[in-house]
Amino acid sequence: SYELTQPPSVSVSPGQTASISCSGDKLGNTFAYWYQLKPGQSPVLVIYQDTKRPSGIPERFSGSTSGNTATLTISGTQAIDEADYSCQAWDSSTAVFGGGTKLTVL
Amino acid sequence: QVQLQESGPGLVKPSQTLSLTCTVSGASIDSYSYYWNWIRQPAGKGLEWIGRFYGSGSTNYNPSLKSRVTISLDTSKKQLSLKLSSVTAADTAVYYCAREAVAGKTGGNYFDYWGQGTLVTVSS
Question: What is the pLDDT of residue B118?
Fold first, then answer.
């Protein structure tokens, strides 16, 4: 089955740039999506179709791809960005998620 | 605004059937522009897509769960339903419903609205 691989954790200092990677064999040929998850809250779409930012998502969130790796970048990271982040892609008609990355803002 | 709210028993016994409902407000549930999904997250693990309902009765399911899952849609009640049979402790998770926006024939669909999730524990 298709898998997406994310680092379990990433740490960043406030105001610095955080980068979270997501690798998968088909990412070069299919879009990547990123979701922010906080306990007790609804997950939030922060990046769709590799690089697009939904309305209401701060400009400090951006997405990029290179080869089979998608990257979520948070510039000027704030304490409120501390959360789990999950990447997602489509394998035909099946949604596949990465294992999630816990972002800690120290 | 679009809101999704999951509901159902928080405790299910092993071998029984887990049944959840997702009530949708602020959006048309029978629009061909959207599909309706169930996604779950076991504690300490990543998200797992369960399946979706779309159109006038089409479904797609995660191959790993397909034999046990039924997803249906009641447009009159604006409710999405999930039934997962023969549950075990491995089915203990937070269950989410999510709206999938259809991006076009070339693909690119994404989950734009989610419920807050409901915890279901499988235990005797």
Answer: 97
